[in-house]
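Here is the promised in-class demo. Please do not try to memorize the tokens; focus on the logic of going from shape to residues.
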């Protein structure tokens, strides 16, 4: 891509010849792309903090209640019985990320990845506050007092967001109860909370960009997902080369794009697994181009093909295939969610039982019934026959009243007239009604004596 391109790199950019880590002190970006990312990231952080606090009809807006095996997403409660829907949501999300990687490169990494959002818009601004905007390796380190206060602030912020994450699993009221309970009553939970806090602190205070360059597999996946037509942050080598103030290319080799890169790469050397498409180099290069009266966007969102030919074409066999699969999955998800019932009923024959002869004209079967109320309101249900049989339904000792987001279990005894039976097995259908409204129907087999 240019005369100054280095040879093949055999190690991450933040590792030196001896194998030691090279610490990266990125300069604070400034420009329209950074402003856009900041607004977006703060919106995501605000949602993260506020979503567990929002109530919809006295019910949580977002909560992942693993202990009770239920997930509340945008006010809708999904139980363990809705695993298929949750799996579909996860699959749609993965295909969506893959599709965007094929078309738009690592857009997820630069804009929506929690690691990027927290490091660049929470912890790095704290670092700028205590250490200044930019510290090179040869510059004098920050004073021990400032460094100590910086790390105390890092830990307090980590503790705050650990509690925010905890709210997503136990709710705001659960968090208040946690702190209202004496520490000795839940020592294990306290140790767990402090352990997670310490882990977050270590990630953002010390491990930092190595999550992206060494741990996260997504950067390596892009090698098989991207092609010459994928849109990514890219350096216009046609216009920029040869580099240097005295050369004919627009790149004056000021290396300002390196100074703002959070992973320490040189974007001019082409697509690299460490590049998270954060756009910091775009803003910095545009600032330099403006100062030297050159056209902006020497570094920009473009494709390799777009740089070479001046034409962008994101539609190809892969993008069409991914788009088709994604569309079909979204349609399936929409159909499944729209057909999701307010209650979910499982009625199974009581193990080890056969039919019972009540009298000369009536046969009885016994079943275990489990009804899950998926709504935010109590349900007073009535179980009735839908199929054309004559008989009665009896619940063992209680009526089918189910509180919101709870489970009702009982033994159901069905008594049916012999004249309505079709021999050893008779297919029947029961309906769960709330008033006159049918909520769900259940198909059963009723065992009876063989016809003679």
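The designed amino acids, position by position:
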């Amino acid at each position: 891509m240019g005369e100054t391109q280095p040879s093949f790199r055999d190690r991450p950019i933040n590792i030196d010849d001896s194998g030691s880590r090279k610490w990266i002190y990125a300069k604070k970006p400034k420009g329209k792309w950074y402003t856009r990312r900041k607004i977006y990231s703060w919106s995501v952080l605000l949602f993260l903090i506020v979503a567990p606090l929002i109530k919809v009809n006295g019910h949580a807006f977002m909560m992942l209640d693993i202990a009770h095996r239920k997930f509340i997403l945008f006010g809708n409660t999904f139980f363990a019985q809705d695993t298929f829907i949750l799996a579909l949501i996860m699959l749609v999300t993965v295909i969506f990320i893959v599709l965007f990687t094929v078309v738009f490169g690592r857009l997820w990494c630069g804009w929506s990845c929690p690691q990027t959002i927290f490091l660049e818009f929470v912890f790095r601004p704290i670092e700028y506050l205590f250490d200044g905007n930019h510290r090179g390796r040869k510059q004098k380190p920050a004073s021990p007092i400032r460094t100590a206060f910086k790390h105390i602030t890092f830990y307090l912020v980590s503790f705050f967001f650990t509690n925010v994450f905890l709210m997503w699993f136990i709710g705001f009221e659960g968090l208040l109860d946690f702190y209202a309970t004496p520490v000795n009553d839940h020592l294990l939970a306290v140790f767990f909370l402090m352990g997670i806090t310490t882990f977050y602190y270590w990630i953002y205070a010390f491990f930092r960009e190595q999550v992206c360059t060494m741990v996260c597999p997504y950067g390596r996946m892009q090698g098989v997902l991207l092609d010459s037509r994928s849109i990514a942050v890219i350096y216009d080598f046609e216009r920029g080369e040869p580099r240097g103030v005295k050369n004919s290319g627009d790149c004056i080799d000021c290396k300002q794009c390196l100074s703002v890169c959070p992973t320490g790469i040189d974007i001019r050397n082409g697509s690299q697994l460490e590049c998270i498409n954060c756009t910091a180099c775009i803003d910095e290069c545009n600032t330099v181009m403006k100062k030297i009266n050159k056209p902006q966007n020497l570094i920009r969102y473009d494709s390799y093909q777009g740089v070479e030919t001046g034409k962008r074409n994101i539609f190809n066999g892969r993008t069409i295939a991914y788009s088709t699969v994604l569309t079909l999955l979204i349609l399936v998800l929409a159909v499944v969610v729209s057909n999701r019932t307010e209650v979910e009923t499982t009625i199974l024959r009581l193990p080890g039982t056969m039919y019972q002869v009540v009298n000369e004209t009536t046969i009885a079967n016994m079943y275990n019934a489990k009804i899950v109320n998926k709504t935010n309101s109590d349900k007073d249900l009535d179980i009735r026959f839908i199929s054309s049989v004559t008989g009665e339904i009896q619940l063992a000792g209680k009526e089918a009243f189910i509180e919101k987001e709870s489970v009702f279990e009982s033994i159901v005894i069905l008594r049916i007239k012999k004249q309505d039976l079709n021999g050893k097995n008779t297919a029947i259908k029961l309906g769960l009604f709330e008033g006159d409204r049918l909520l769900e129907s259940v198909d059963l087999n009723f065992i009876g004596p063989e016809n003679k």
